[in-house]
Amino acid sequence: VFIAQSRASGSHRDLEDEELTRIFVMIPKTYTEEDLREKFKMYGDIEYCSIIKNKTTGESKGLGYVRYLKPSQAALAIEECDRSYRAILAEPKNKSSESFEHDYYSNAMRPELRGNTLPFCMQPEFCSFEKAETRIQEPVSKRLSVVSRLPFIQEQLFALFDLVPGLEYCDVQRDPHTNSGYAVIQYSTAASAIYAKYKLHGFEYPPGNRLTVIFLEDGNDSSE
Question: 69, 105, 202, 222: least buried by Cβ within 10 Å?
Answer without folding.
Answer: 202
